[in-house]
Design goal:
Helix content is 56%, strand content 0%. By secondary structure, it is mainly alpha-helical. α1 (8-17) packs across α4. The radius of gyration is 18 Å and the shape is globular. Bound molecules: iron/sulfur cluster (2 copies).
């Protein structure tokens, strides 16, 4: 449930502040991405519609809201909590599922483009850390079961 991920007292302050709405790049550029509405609905216990909304995946995680917040809280916490809940229920956009599958398979979210790296005189990319990641994932799955991994 959301109350295990969010501090509702801080969210009540958000409902009065609304500063995030005016600086968030997603709010400013994406129609329907509205921190004020999300916070209002969470506080009213009426957040189910956001679990299936594409908007919760449109947070850039730029931390701009965290930086300006006088509570050092940040609207991103609400979006992260909603995405976590959506992932636990298996409600993820296809792009997120594809990204997760690729990360598990290769340890990367994309393959390095070698000709471009060469052209820019960039060094050879380092190892992806895939083996270490898979070990950690195995430990996590053993401890927690398969709950919470977006690709499951
Ligand atoms: S997260 Fe901080 S800046 Fe954003 S609305 Fe809440 S109190 Fe205001
Ligand atoms: S972290 Fe997300 S919610 Fe916060 S300002 Fe950036 S895009 Fe907006």
């Amino acid at each position: 449930m959301l109350d295990t991920h969010l501090d509702f007292k801080l969210l009540e302050m958000c409902a009065r502040c609304e500063a995030c709405y005016h600086i968030c790049p997603s709010s400013l550029n994406i129609e329907g991405y509205d921190p004020r509405a999300v916070i209002k609905d969470i506080l009213a216990g009426d957040y189910e519609k956001w679990i299936t909304s594409k908007h919760i995946w449109q947070c850039l995680e730029c931390h701009h809201c965290l930086e300006i917040c006088f509570q050092h809280y940040g609207f991103e916490n609400a979006m992260t909590a909603l995405r976590t809940l959506a992932a636990k229920r298996g409600v993820t956009p296809p792009q997120v599922k594809r990204g997760w599958d690729m990360f598990v398979k290769t340890g990367r979210l994309g393959e390095p483009i070698m000709p471009a790296r060469k052209k820019l005189s960039l060094p050879e990319p380092g190892a992806s850390g895939k083996e270490e990641f898979l070990k950690l994932l195995g430990v996590y799955r053993e401890a927690k079961g398969r709950e919470g991994t977006p690709a499951e």
